[in-house]
Amino acid sequence: MAGIKIEKFVEAPPETVFDYATDFANCAEYIDGIHKTEMLTEGPVGVGTRFRETRLMFKKEAVEEMEVTAFERPRGYMLGCENHGARYASEFVLTPKGSGTNLSMSFEATPLTMKAKILGFLMRPMMKMMAKECLKDLDGVKGAAEAAVASKSS
Asked: Pick from 14, 16, 34: which is nearest to 24 by CA?
């Protein structure tokens, strides 16, 4: 099992941060690493929402079909998917902190096939690079949420 955990402080209330973090239909507008998303389910975002995300990872285009597996506004949510013989889970937790929100993200990959177990072992050194990419995602949410708060106060 390989995993990472990162966090970022956002100068915005948890509700605002949560709304930007879960705006999967529009997140490519403020998260640089995401090229596009396609909603695969209709209606408001919640458990069972599915979307296809296209992003650049390690200089290659990666397409993943994600599903919301847990959803509790504004406390957090989880995303899951299976691909390349592994199950991937990302958990986002929002904790009020002073005038803002601590946004943390954990990612875990569980190999399901022998090939995935071997690749998982080989990928461990790349987890630091992946953590940097995920921090950029959190930076995008941070920028959008803080800009929204600034525009409301001006």
From this structure: 34
Element (DSSP H or E) covering residue 131: helix 127-153
Helix (H, G, I), strand (E, B), or coil: what is residue 41? coil
Task: Locate the domains of the chain by residue range.
Answer: 2-23+70-153
List, for residues 11-60, the tens digit of each pLDDT value.
Answer: 999 999 999 999 999 999 999 989 999 999 999 999 999 999 998 777 78
- In order of 40, 48, 66, 143, the CA distances from 51 in angstroms are 5, 10, 5, 23
- Architecture of domain 2-23+70-153 in this structure: 2-Layer Sandwich (3.30)
pTM: predicted TM-score of the whole model, two decimal places: 0.89
Query: By the 8 A CB rule, do 50 and 41 touch?
Result: yes
CA distance 107 to 4: 5
